Write a sequence for this structure.
């Protein structure tokens, strides 16, 4: 169904998405087979039937259903039932042309062409055409719609997206941007039909399940799309039911008691319990991270020595052990560990209390007292803050913890010192989200307005414009060096994503992606009941 | 645990029969009952534990001493909690804040409630109506609900929890106070004192208060029980002042999820909380029984 | 308020009704004023995903920033017409958001009441009759222990015992799927109901016991006995009705407590009721939803108290003659 050689070619440039005949990027491919194939090979012959019941925490009456927007985690679980993207990430977080687009090619630094796969039908029988793609991109790119993906469309010349023929779209850019394929693979870039509106309007996507009912904060029911374009028997379940949970304990109990077939975010301490109950834990090494964010323009962190001292205070292996029961890998205050340009050459930071103390002394900040804000926004956020506070004592730093249920209320992004959460992303996409003056979630107020590091923004533009991947890596490593030396993030570790599922559920594979449960079983189509 | 009913239990018991008794002799007399003795013993043990526990703790309550949720053994006599901290040490540290908050909250609620109840009982007019209707309005909100709203709006600070509990304790105390004080107000000696020109506040504190101290003792022990329960319940819902303060309620919340792997982090604070609320409950019950004369025959042998 | 005194039972009921209306009015003022202190709902709703664009979009949708002093009357008018406003988080009428949840919670409360009230009256009466005997001592000790256990502890122990670890007899969670009714899920109701019964029954039983002892020692029971009436008649016709008086108050308060305090039980069992809706609404700063739920819970309290007052008067011959 796919042009395999083209895809392998595409895969070689991890996250840098070099397309359209840039032979330099052609490299080895560690993941040549398509995700659907590898999943089915893994666990025998799929069987049809059954009602897959999934429990998700973090929702509430503010749940929404929109093919291009999310507010809560259950929203993510629901979005992927019915909506698909042009490009997709595989289990290794490599871009693949397995989505709705046959090819996405960069014609020149400021123009992409999207070639749609032919013969794909929406759930209402309408054929997917260029008009739908144009509507979808313009819907995200319209500021007034308030969609999650809006910021990522900044470089797109959204008004001039053009239909070339029934299945071809030309996407012009305002400025060069090599991360467009990454953007198009983001799950909030779902393709919706012309005229689409969010729930309570009818939900029509190209995905494997049709919406049957949805009550925000409670549950949604999705029924099998018999006309699903991938064929081959997919999807396998007759029905998918997604249930909201307030309490992680109730959620785990429901799995153990057999009322659910899978749950998101099984606490690390419960892995053994789940196995004891005859259930399984899906442990995915993702690039998810829980940073301690220091605002570089707010005291005491406006002094780079204080930031450096804080980074030396952390005992990273102990933090993995305590917060994640050992399920994770050490971080080096840099994000995007799966990016091809991730700088592995920078020395790993270790706890060094003496050095931290002398830095604080040099800054005139001995016996420092700081307020650290956190919340139960994602598993581990409160624990990370707690353990940092404990470790900081050794350096004579007093950390006052504030666990605020309304953390993301009026104070978010205005705090000097706070904990936040992020999922897997490639480097430049992440920079665009959180490390530029116009980023929607810039917790550290990076980059500096003057002096060292003030060229970060122009480096970013250069990296986006670079069509040569080695050149781009060179620039991004220069950016990483700046963040490593004087940045505001403390990134102690990358935590594994742990989900629980019943032993009769097959087809789930560990994935490096952002979403839980193997990207929710690729829209619930690659998993089945034995 | 039912924070909404204490006033009613006490009221119902007290309105039936409240012979005026001197509080000190009432307490001494109630001690002849086994339930009071057990209650007093439990409360004493836990109060002592809360006060002196931190001096006995083998580790700091937030020190990392082993893998999370490890079983008893080695450095951790009762194993470690969800963050690899010593369960025993956290338990020994964990009584203070909860007991402290409960006592302060109950104390404020008691003082306010008694003041309002006495004024209402004494004034016997529109002031009485206005005050008691005001109390009705506050009572219309269940304790836990008011605390939940307050904590989410203002933040999970200790003073917010204390204030919310004090605010919801006061009307229940006021009701009991007014109920028991009213018959006393009707009696001749108050009128006599009034006629002698003694100031009202003097009459309230000097004459009325001693006469209703017995029932108030019962009420305060019950109120304390519910305050402890509400604080623990809030902590269970994840709303406690400091995310990592050692606190019995928070401990239950933190370690509940690992209960089947490492039960001690939950079981020990549960036992302590149950023993504490049982102790105050037994004490109150013993005093109430003595006051109500239910066990008079036995008590005066 | 002397003009309101007198008038026998009818007068008493009218007086109580008016009083209830006054209290409810004051409650509405308090609820409206205090919920205005909740912060910007747009931020609270969007949470981590709030971008400047989405914030602006939602704020515009919610018409935030209008003066609220005059809004009180509009709100009250809506309230009286059964219009509870639009939930900010769900973007749907509040009535639509909570109606099914209201039924679910009511079912849970009524079921718990229907089981715990007769049960506790029976236990309390029996203990009073067997005063200081084995049953009395055993039951009162057990009830004290149960009363001391926080609800979440009871709930957690029940789940471990009956659904997840020891036995697998009952479901560990009890969500009521939209479109169905609680009574379609009988098995799922057992654990939440049991938790609430354990939370409530000890209190009612204790008051029943105390009240029954008081009545049994009273003159008129003595009189009835002296008249040579059979003990059975004495107990059921004379003692029980009089003993029930104070118990009604406790039952009312307990049912009202259940209406608000089910927060914890609904949380543990993931039950779809107003307790979990309240928790959600408070976190989202969903002002109309918090207001509606607070008013409903307060109204339940006021109405139950009213009913208890009337029932007490009607059932207690001593009090009836005093009017």
């Amino acid at each position: 169904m796919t042009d395999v050689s083209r895809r392998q070619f595409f895969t070689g440039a991890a996250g840098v998405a070099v397309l359209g005949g840039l032979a330099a990027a052609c490299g080895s491919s560690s993941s040549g087979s398509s995700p659907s194939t590898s999943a089915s090979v893994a666990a025998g012959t799929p069987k049809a039937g059954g009602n897959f019941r999934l429990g998700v925490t973090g929702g509430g009456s503010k749940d929404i259903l929109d093919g291009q927007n999310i507010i809560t985690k259950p929203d993510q679980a629901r979005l992927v039932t019915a909506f698909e993207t042009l490009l997709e990430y595989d289990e290794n977080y490599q871009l693949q042309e397995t989505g709705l687009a046959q090819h996405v090619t960069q014609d020149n630094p400021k123009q992409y062409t999207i070639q749609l796969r032919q013969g794909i039908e929406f759930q209402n029988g309408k054929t997917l055409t260029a008009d739908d793609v144009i509507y979808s991109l313009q819907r995200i790119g319209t500021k007034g719609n308030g969609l999650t993906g809006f910021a990522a469309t900044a470089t797109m010349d959204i008004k001039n997206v053009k239909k070339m023929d029934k299945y071809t779209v030309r996407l012009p850019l305002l400025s060069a941007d090599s991360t467009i394929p990454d953007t198009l693979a983001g799950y909030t870039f779902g393709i919706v039909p012309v005229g689409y509106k969010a729930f309570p309007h009818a939900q029509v996507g190209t995905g494997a399940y049709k919406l049957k009912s949805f009550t925000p904060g409670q549950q949604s029911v999705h029924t099998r799309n018999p006309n699903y374009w991938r064929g081959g028997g997919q999807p396998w379940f007759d029905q998918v039911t997604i249930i909201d949970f307030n309490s992680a304990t109730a959620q785990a109990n429901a799995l153990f008691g057999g009322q659910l077939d899978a749950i998101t975010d099984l606490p690390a301490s419960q892995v053994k319990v789940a196995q004891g109950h005859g259930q399984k834990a899906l442990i995915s090494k993702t690039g998810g991270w829980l940073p301690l964010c220091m605002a570089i323009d707010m005291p005491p962190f406006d002094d780079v020595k204080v930031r450096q001292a804080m980074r030396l205070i952390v005992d990273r292996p102990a933090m993995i052990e305590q917060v994640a029961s050992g399920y994770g890998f050490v971080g080096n205050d840099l994000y995007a560990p799966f990016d091809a340009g991730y700088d592995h050459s920078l020395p790993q930071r270790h706890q060094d209390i003496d050095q931290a103390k002398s830095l604080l002394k040099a800054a005139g900040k001995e016996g420092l007292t700081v307020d650290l804000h956190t919340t139960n926004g994602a598993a581990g956020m409160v624990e990370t803050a707690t353990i940092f506070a404990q470790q900081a004592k050794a350096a004579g730093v007093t950390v006052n913890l504030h666990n605020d249920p309304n953390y993301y209320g009026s104070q978010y992004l205005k705090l000097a010192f706070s904990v936040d959460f992020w999922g897997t992303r490639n480097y430049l996409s992440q920079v665009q989200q959180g490390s530029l003056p116009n980023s929607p979630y810039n917790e550290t107020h990076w980059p500096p307005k003057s002096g060292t590091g003030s060229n970060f923004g122009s480096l970013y533009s250069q990296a986006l414009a670079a069509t040569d991947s080695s050149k781009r890596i060179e620039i991004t490593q220069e950016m990483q060096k700046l963040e490593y030396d004087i940045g505001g993030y403390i990134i102690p570790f990358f935590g594994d994503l742990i989900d629980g599922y019943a032993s009769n559920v097959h087809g789930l594979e560990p994935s490096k992606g952002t979403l839980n449960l193997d990207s929710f079983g690729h829209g619930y189509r690659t998993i089945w009941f034995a | 645990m039912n924070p909404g009913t204490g006033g009613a239990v006490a009221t119902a018991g007290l309105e039936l029969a409240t012979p005026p008794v001197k509080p000190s002799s009432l307490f001494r007399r109630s001690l002849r009952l086994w339930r009071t003795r057990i209650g007093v013993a439990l409360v004493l043990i836990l109060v002592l534990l809360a006060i002196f526990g931190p001096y006995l703790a083998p580790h700091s309550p937030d020190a990392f001493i082993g893998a999370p949720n490890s079983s008893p053994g080695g450095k951790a006599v009762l194993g470690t909690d969800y963050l690899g901290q010593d369960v025993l040490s956290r338990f020994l540290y964990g009584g203070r804040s909860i007991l402290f908050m409960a006592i302060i909250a109950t104390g404020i609620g008691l003082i306010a409630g008694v003041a309002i109840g006495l004024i209402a009982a004494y004034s016997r007019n529109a002031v009485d109506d206005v005050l008691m209707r005001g109390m009705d309005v506050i009572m219309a909100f269940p304790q836990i609900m008011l605390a939940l709203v307050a904590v989410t709006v203002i933040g999970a600070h200790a003073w917010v929890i204390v204030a919310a509990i004090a605010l919801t304790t006061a009307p229940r105390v006021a009701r009991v106070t007014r109920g028991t004080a009213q018959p006393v107000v009707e009696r001749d000696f108050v009128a006599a004192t009034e006629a002698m020109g003694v100031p009202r506040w003097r009459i309230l504190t000097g004459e009325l208060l001693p006469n209703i101290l017995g029932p108030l003792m019962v009420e305060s022990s019950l109120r304390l029980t519910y305050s402890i329960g509400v604080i623990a319940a809030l902590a269970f819902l994840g709303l406690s002042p400091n995310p990592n303060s050692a606190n019995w309620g928070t401990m239950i919340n933190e370690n509940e999820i690992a209960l089947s792997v490492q039960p001690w982090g939950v079981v020990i604070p549960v036992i302590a909380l149950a023993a504490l609320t049982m102790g105050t409950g037994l004490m109150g019950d013993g005093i109430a029984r003595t006051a109500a004369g239910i066990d008079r025959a036995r008590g005066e042998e | 308020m002397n003009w309101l005194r007198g008038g026998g039972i009818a007068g008493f009921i009218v007086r109580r009704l008016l009083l209830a209306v006054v209290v409810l009015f004051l409650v509405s003022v308090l609820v409206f004023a205090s919920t205005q202190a909740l912060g910007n709902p747009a931020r609270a709703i969007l949470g981590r995903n709030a971008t400047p664009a989405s914030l602006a979009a939602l704020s515009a949708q919610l018409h935030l920033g209008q003066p609220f002093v005059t809004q009180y009357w509009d709100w009250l008018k809506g309230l009286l017409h059964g219009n509870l406003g639009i939930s900010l988080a769900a973007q749907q009428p509040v009535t639509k958001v909570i109606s099914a949840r209201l039924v679910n919670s009511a079912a849970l409360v009524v079921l718990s009441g229907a089981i715990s009230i007769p049960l506790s009256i029976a236990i309390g009466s029996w203990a009073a009759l067997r005063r200081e005997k084995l049953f009395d001592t055993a039951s009162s000790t057990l009830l004290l222990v149960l009363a001391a256990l926080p609800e979440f502890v009871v709930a957690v122990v029940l789940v471990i015992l009956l659904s997840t670890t020891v036995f697998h007899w009952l479901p560990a969670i009890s969500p009521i799927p939209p479109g169905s009714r609680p009574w379609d899920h009988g098995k799922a109701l057992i654990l939440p109901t049991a938790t609430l019964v354990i939370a409530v029954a000890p209190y009612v039983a204790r008051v029943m016991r105390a009240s029954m002892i008081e009545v049994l020692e009273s003159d008129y029971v003595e009189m009835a006995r002296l008249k040579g009436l059979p003990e059975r008649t004495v107990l059921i016709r004379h003692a029980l009705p009089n003993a029930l008086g104070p118990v009604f108050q406790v039952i009312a308060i307990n049912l009202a407590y259940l209406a608000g305090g089910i927060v914890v039980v609904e949380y543990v069992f993931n039950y779809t009721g107003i307790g979990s809706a309240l928790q959600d609404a408070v976190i989202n700063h969903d002002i109309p939803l918090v207001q509606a739920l607070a008013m409903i819970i307060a109204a339940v309290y006021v109405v139950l108290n009213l009913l208890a007052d009337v029932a007490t008067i009607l059932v207690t011959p001593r009090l009836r003659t005093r009017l």
The two ends of chain C are 16 Å apart (CA to CA). The mean pLDDT of chain C is 80. Chain C touches chain B through 59 residues (CB under 8 Å).
